[in-house]
Amino acid sequence: MPNTDVTNGHAAKPAHPNSSPFSGFGTHAAHHGSDPDKWDFAPIVPPISLSTTFKQSSPGVFAKFEYSRAGNPTRSAFEECIAKLEGGTHAHATSSGLAATSLIINMLKMGDHILCCDDVYGGTNRYFNKIVTKFGIEIDMVDPTDLALFQSKLRDNTALVWLETPTNPMLKICDIKAVVKMVKERYEGKKSPMIVSDNTFASPYFQRPLELGATMSLNSVTKYINGHTDVCMGVISTNDEEVAKELRFLQCAVGPAPSAFDCYLALRGARTLHLRMRQHEINSLAIAKWLENGEKAGHVTKVIHPGLPSHPHTSWQRSR
Questions:
Q1: CB under 8 Å to 160, separation ≥6 — which residues?
Q2: What string of DSSP letters covers 184-208?
Q3: CA-to-CA distance for 298 and 293, rounded, in angstroms?
Q4: Less CB within 10 Å around the terminal CB: N or C of the chain?
Q5: Edge to edge, what strands does the sheet with 234-238 contain?
Q6: DSSP 134
């Protein structure tokens, strides 16, 4: 995980060596979405709602929830929590990280263009180049650290800019703010492409793409947010009301809904995200330093860790 100096455009972190730049993170993770007063019996832990259908006061008139594919009380609790942690107003949970990716792609149409990082999660790469291209959507995979090159690949029909930072697996750092700026300048007075940042490797604990100007932030909940290797889920966060409305429609229309039990487990996992990410940071940096400078360093060709001074984007990050 990134060192505490690596803030990707956020305000500098506190002096404490193992803390998020976002105050109150642990408190929000523990409580947001879990307000006991939203339930008649005031539970401290939100219950698992297994009902697939909900009572109608009259035909077609629902109180809050209609059908479990469209929404669920346990899922809503998890989504409220993640929206808060991401600095967003809406979150949309899905049955996997790739299901979240496919939900976003369903917002596009034939003839659209995607500008994507050249180093992304293998599942994203496979989905984009083996499946999405079959439907008349063009994709360019470009090094996001070369901003001039990245900008040159924007087209009039670019509908989506896909970032991932740090990238998987090479841990490149994308300058989200700079990309947002170049996109706004390129499409001034025109419809601007949506900007998605895959936040899985950083997690909301270290980075909030929405606060840096991204349209959406995506996380594979399966990884750090759940953190216990027993849930496969994804989540998309946004501050854009129109985007949120379309995502909510697609959740119901396309159907990549997570189970209530998985949402319950993921909400449980999110409560300890801050504790786990602190320790991940300490452990990973200690290992990286040992591999680079320790007694076995002569057997190691190269160490890639965004917190090391040797990482090509560390000074670039700190300068922001």
A1: 104, 105, 107, 108, 112, 113, 114, 115, 193, 194, 195, 196
A2: HHHTTTSPPPEEEEE-TTTHHHH--
A3: 9
A4: C
A5: 90-94, 234-238, 216-220, 194-198, 158-164, 113-117, 138-142
A6: G
CA distance 241 to 247: 10
Q: Which residues are catalytic?
A: 69, 121, 198, 223
Q: Which amino acid is at 117?
A: C
| Single-letter residue type at 226 | N
